[in-house]
Structures are given as C-alpha cells and as structure tokens.
Amino acid sequence: MPKPQQPLDLSGVHDFDFFVGSWHTHSRRLKDRLVGSHDWEEFDGTIRSFSLMGGSANVDDTEFDTPEGIYRGVAPRAYDPKTGLWAIWWIDGRNPHGALDPPVKGRFVHGIGTFYADDTLRGKPIKVRFTWSKITPTSAHWEQAYSGDGGKTWETNWIQDVRRVE
Prior knowledge:
It comes from Dyella solisilvae. By secondary structure, the protein is mostly beta strands. It has no helices and eleven strands. The protein has a single domain (20-164), classed as Calycin beta-barrel core domain (Lipocalin).
C-alpha cells in the first residue's frame, strides 16, 4: 500500500524571483574569519541571475573585482516543495573542481531570508548563516556570518549591497 503523499509546500517557490536580472554589488568582507579580525576589504562586482526549472531553481553568475584580482563563482539555488526550504550552494571559480560547500538551507519569513549550514573552517566545525533583507525591486542586502560556538554567537564576515542594473 503506497503511503499517502504529503501536500506540497509551494509557499516560497517564488521567493528569489526578485533577484532575476543583472545587479551591481558592493561588498565588505573580513580578511580573516573567526580570529577576532576587524580588518575589512571592499570591492565591487556584478551578478547575473537566471530562473530555471519553472521558477523552482535559479542560478547566479557572479564576478567580484577583489583586491587580489577577479574572482568568479556560481550560486545555484533550488526549492524543495516537500520541505518548503531553499538550498543554496557556491561553486568557487578559483577551484571549480573542488568539493562543494554544504548548502545553506532556509526560507523567507516576513521578507527576510535566513539560511543555515554546518561546515568546517581550518578543520574545525562551524555554522554558516546567510541573511537576505531590505529587498526592494531595485536593491537588496545580503550578509554571511560564521559561528564557531554552535550558533551562540555570530561573526558577520561578508556584507553585500546589490543594486539592479536591468
């Protein structure tokens, strides 16, 4: 006897529709993470975001003009209607055949998207958090934070403001 299917949660399937298009980005990033550093670097970049799979997935093609040089990456995202969660991965152009980081998973609540993952940094377990906020038709704010103490405290290490180009 087959199990009854759970109803699909499509409530968040369009949460990233706002990001489809071309964007200019300004980033502030800590040079060293989870070591008490207060030394930030700033740089600009571009992001082109495309919708896939009828809106239940999308991908960003990103280029950052960092002080170390051009840095490219790809951020695929996919929505799971069984859980109502988005998953976000990062493919680093500096090591495109390297292992993918664990995806951050989460959802938007009251216009703020919060996504978490367990990962490692310098061989030690950490928690990762992405936050999307201040979303308008022409701008958005993104932050990345790490926790080395299981989520009790967080260090924001990358702040990005994006402005729509087209």
